[in-house]
Please model this.
Amino acid sequence: MNQPVRTSGTAITSLVLGIICWVGLPFIGALIAVICGHIARGEIRRAPAGSVEGDGLAIAGLILGYLQLGMFLIGILIFVGILMLGLGVSGWH
Model:
């Protein structure tokens, strides 16, 4: 008898938070999307073949989360760079 196929809840969570992190929860949403995406992919790999779906959802959540984390890091680096440039130009050491 075939087992029913189900979609991983953590994969769905990863995708939803991956989308939300671009709209309202930039850092926290991205971090949770990445964590849930990795958990979901592990769950899908460990499940019997074909019994759990959602690898594409998990990958999409991972991509969106990692892109947001990268943008956040670039933003912080630019902010620190501008801050350091401003302090250097003003003569404050």
About this structure: The mean pLDDT is 91. The radius of gyration is 19 Å. Helices lie at 9-20, 26-46, 55-89. Residues 55-89 form the longest helix (35 residues).
